[in-house]
Design brief:
mainly alpha; rod-shaped
């Protein structure tokens, strides 16, 4: 016959695994958001540089 602590253990492990899964998904989503933000900044800087180059070429 199993003891009371071994009968409770599976119920305690499920929330811990769920919390770990939520944390992993949160970290992955935060990394994706940071990647998108960095890409957007890079594209905007490249657009500003190209616009500046095109404007200076048109003035000549």
């Amino acid at each position: 016959m199993p003891s009371a602590s071994s009968a409770v253990a599976p119920f305690l492990a499920r929330p811990a695994a769920a919390l770990a899964g939520v944390l992993v998904v949160g970290v992955v989503l935060a990394a994706l958001l940071a990647t998108v933000a960095i890409t957007a900044v890079s594209v905007s800087i490249a657009a500003l540089v190209l616009r500046s180059l095109l404007n200076s070429a048109n003035k000549r």
